[in-house]
Amino acid sequence: MPQRGLSRIELLQGTLDLIILQTLRWGPRHGYGIAQIIRSTSSETFQIETGSLYPALHRLERAKLIASSWDTSDKGQRVKNYELTAAGKKQLQAERSRWEQLASTMATLLNTPLGADS
Amino acid sequence: MSRRDRDLDDEIAAHLRMAIEERMARGESRADAERAARRELGNVAHVKEVTREQHAGLWLERLGQDVRYAIRSFAKNPGFTSVVIATLALGIGVNAAIFTIAHGVLLRPLDYPRPEQLMYLTAESPVTGNTQNALSAPEYAEFRQMNRSFAEVGAYETGGAAYTTGEVNLAAGDRPLRARSISVDAHLLKALAIQPEQGRLFTDEETARWTGTLPPPIAMLSHELWRTAFGGRPLVGQKVEIEGRPHEIVGIMPAGADVMDNHTQVWLPLWLHPNMARQRGSHVLYVIARLKDGVTAKLAQTELSTFLENWGDHAGTRDHVPTNRPLRPTDHSLQLRTLQDAIVGGARRPIWVLQAAVGFVLLVVCANLANLMIARAASRRREFVLRAALGASRGRLLRQSITEAAMMSGAGGILGVWLADAGVRALIHAYPTSVPRTSELAIDLPVLLVALALSIATALLFGFVSLGGWRVRASSMATALKEGARGASGGQRHRARRALVIAQVACAVMLVIGAALLLRTVYNLTRFDAGFDRSRLVTFSMTLPMGSGEPETRAQAYQRVLDRLRSVPGVLGTVAMSGLPPNRSPDAISTPIENYTSDDGRHSEIIDYYQFVMGGGDYFATMGIPIVAGRGFEPTDNASQAKVAIVNETFVKKVWKTQSPIGQRVRPPGWTFGANDDVWHTVIGVAKDVRQRGVDRPAGAELYVSLDQHRVAPPSMNVVLRTTLPPAALSGTIERVVREVDAAVPVVRLRDMDSVFAESIRRPRLLAQLLGAFAGLALLLAALGTYGVLSYTVTERRREIGIRIALGAARSQVLTQIMRQGLQVTALGVAIGLAGALAVNRLIASLLFGVQPTDAVTMAFVIATITTVALVASCLPAWRASRVDPNVVLRDE
Prior knowledge:
A: 118 residues, 3 strands, 58% helix
């Protein structure tokens, strides 16, 4: 179902980008590592299709929010590592506060009793 | 396979390998681990494809998304979308159309090599208001010799004297046709730097030797006439019958070649009657000159000015030479202007007025669209806030809204250019001679660029207006989401909409005032008494070949035509005359007057118009021209040896002042009407002034001579019939009568006198019609804007209105309140518009006739109209407001 996959990537774009940036906060990682961290830290709540990870990584790289380099893993394999750029760090800050704000307002909104909207 | 593709493959492969290794480390079998890892990753090929797209077509991909999204949102609102596109198409269309005219007529250089070097030399008599006149033949010769600024100075003639009418009869095969002609000398063709397409140009010899009684029988044809009338067959060196004489075609002009927008079809050698060539008083030659390389127009003007200081000394005469100080009515000066200016001349101001008008229309259009966009932005606020919440950046949203606006503007622009093209074509078709240089008009690159620029400007405007309406900011998101549920409100936005409506009304007021003033002008021109009774007059013109007959035989032929037409039932009177009022060219012939000495000591006076009439006994009765003193021509005069003449009131004022004109004698030169000698004519009567050269131009001095007395006739005459029948009913009879007299002579310009009048005021009429249409458009849009903003107010304040009604407010009060709001907006707009109109209306003062630019009646009428329109536009929303049911509204809340 290629069409469905595409639309899901698009829908989660903002969210996924933020998660990836957050993951890279502690240093360079390769794609598989990022996927691992997301899965473990979100307690598998986010059913992120691993397939949508790579388009997001490449998009962020193109937007110069992350940079990549080829490296050799401890097992002697060629792997591509990603790390945050300065712009990426700034973007992470901005996105985080935006999300916190949204989350808190959403919480307020959802907790307000019906009908008392003004 | 590119490096990037290989890297991507490696990256995905590494991912799979690590996933499998980890699963195997947890104890899964290799086969299970591989399957699970692949399932987790998804369709590998698809993942790669999507990842690649992030690099290759990101920009294009997003644009594609935007476009798809825009089309979806258009499809959801087809009404809104078509209103926007149609409004834009109108706004851009009228602008592109008028700019096509402005560019093609005013801005585009003339189609000659180095057109900026071409100058036009005219005679000006400021005291009599006679401007852009021709030069006399001696002046032309002297200027040719004296000047040092010009590489070449040439002359042409299209009309004026009795022998040339600017049209000739031409036999193409066995078909007689009437073709527009011009008589040029070889210098003129050199000055214009025209090269013949075939054959040769005229030589100096052929055009400067003014002897004999007829010009040399040679001619050139325009490319277009050669194609249409002669099928483009080889013609150079062959004979074609022109004005009844075989002429040798020496050359064919290139396509589009013309002089002074004359629409020339036949080029003839310039030839003047030897008597006229000596006359300083006969202004018959139009002069075009080409500056030498490196000489500026200013330098040439300075040189001319020096000549004018003492022209008489050079010419060896004091009689009627041009001067720098033309203080008396008989004096004239010479003036140089660029040829382009001379051609475009009077059309410049009307075209810029129209351009300004369509600019205002575009402003009104933009205000309307901005209003629509603000309303729509409010209703789409929720959608955009949601998209922002889901991660769409501000830039992305702006791009989205600009994409939508650009698509609508693009569609509007394309439709607009198409409309402009159709409009300009229709205009040229309907008014072929009202605008100069129309044969060259086309939607070309500059016009397309302007249309494109307008589209882009409007697109950006909408895009930003839309975004301004959304104000997507994280801090306001919650409010936006909540508000969105019942449509955003906002005092600021409302004020913006009101301001837009006020601006619209102001623009509409200015346009409507301009249109109303021009409509008054046209009305005044139509109703203006030109000095004769034009009802139930039918006219046509005919030209008897100059070469085939003597003046006497021509007179007999005309007499036969008149006699036969007179016996047609329904025809009350039939006369013929040399110049048809109210739109003929002036003669300006120096005429000796007995016992008369002018201010500068001459015994003659320049008479503006000679009117040679046939059927003289009936002339003044048939034309409905009152005789104010003495008597008109009578049949008994015809046999009398004593020649008589009639003058008009202006002639009397100019020459005899308080003296009685009856019994005075004048001596019109015989060559002007085909007689051999100059004889004294006794003035027997004074006729009321008749406007000859446009109803808005002052009448000149006019002399009536009865050709019945002389039994000669000039080649061209205009026949006028007073009849109860329309021209269509008479055309068969007239064609038959003329054919019986001379089968080779075509009947031209058969129409009633009202059409002649309409033709004479065609330019102000066209201007008034166009401006009227634009003003109507602006008014309609302003009305829609008022309606829109009031509807919006009512919708927004439904709850408040409902509560007020529930609390006992009368419905009539609510109605009045909303109406008052509409009128307030209108009143402000009207006030601003009036101020604007008063500030700029003097720009059109020169285009008005019989009405002041500050005319109170017009202003009052316009205010009344706009107020009525505003009332109508406010009615529906106000009525809706008064119908608000408090139960329904309050329950909704």
